[in-house]
Amino acid sequence: MKRTQLLSLLAVNLVLLPLIQLSYNLYFITKIAEGSFYLIILPTLIILSHLLLCCSWPRVAASIHWSFIYAGQATSIACYFVWHYGQLEPYPDMPPGEAVFDLCMSTFLIGLWQFIVLVLVHLSTFIILKMGLTFKKA
User: 69 with 13: CB under 8 angstroms?
Assistant: First the structure.
C-alpha cells in the first residue's frame, strides 16, 4: 500500500465523513429525517466514497477498505455525540445526568444500527465477490 493511498483513505474517513456529519447537523437536519440519514444516506456515502477509491487504486485490499469504513463510521458517530452534547439543554424537571444518558443511549443505538447496516453490506459484497470468483474459475 502506497503512502498516498493511505492518506486518501484517512482523508475520506477522518475528514470527509465528519464534514458530512457536520453539514447534516447544520443544514439538513430539518429537511432529511434523522433515521433515513443515519441508516441509509450516510452508509451509502461511505460505501460510494470507498468504491471511488477502489476504482482509482485497485491494489488496496478490500479488508483495508472495510477497516477504514468502520473507522469512518466510528468517527461519524463520535461527531454526532460531540455535536449533540454541545447542543444539550436538559429540561428543568429532569434528574441530573438523564439528558446525557439519553444522548449516550441514542448515540449507541444509532451507531449499532449503522454498524449492522455496514456489516450486512460487507457480507453481501463478500458473497458477491466470492461468487464472482467462483464463476470466473469455472
Answer: yes
In this prediction the pTM is 0.76
Whether residue 79 contacts residue 21, with contact meaning beta carbons closer than 8 Å, is answered with yes
- Other beta carbons within 10 Å of 87: 9
Buried b (16+ CB within 10 A) or exposed e, 40-54: eebbebbbebbeebe
Each residue's pLDDT, cut to its tens digit, for the chain (138 residues) gives 677 777 878 887 778 877 887 787 777 877 888 778 877 887 788 778 777 777 776 667 777 778 888 888 888 888 888 888 888 887 788 787 888 898 899 889 988 988 888 888 888 878 887 787 777 776
What are the backbone angles phi and psi of residue 94, rounded to the nearest 5°?
-80, 145
